[in-house]
Design goal:
The chain is mainly α and about 100 residues long. The chain has helices at about 5-35, 45-55, 65-80, 85-95.
């Protein structure tokens, strides 16, 4: 028994929407964390902000993805040293 072309289109449409919904959520999480103090903000706070930003959707099943995005963003932020830290480093090397 073969599946109808309509079934394939529906599946593709659902996949398309899911991918873009995930991307939208990740972009929003990055926006929330952009100016946040990563030492102060909690995972719970980020999740609550995402849930409030998308009130028409039950995103509880996206909690792990949200947490993974927070961890990835915090790792990215940790790899970039502030200019003052770099200046101090360069002055130590010169002496």
């Amino acid at each position: 028994m073969s599946k109808s072309p309509g079934f394939s289109r529906k599946l593709l449409s659902l996949t398309y929407r899911t991918v873009f919904q995930d991307l939208d959520i990740k972009v929003y999480v990055e926006k929330v964390l952009e100016d946040a103090d990563l030492q102060e903000i909690t995972m719970k706070t980020v999740c609550e902000k995402v849930y409030k930003h998308y009130p028409d959707f039950d995103l509880s099943h996206k909690k792990n993805m949200i947490k993974d995005t927070v961890k990835a963003v915090s790792r990215k932020k940790d790899t970039y040293l502030p200019v003052s830290t770099l200046d101090s480093f360069h002055s130590i090397i010169r002496h």
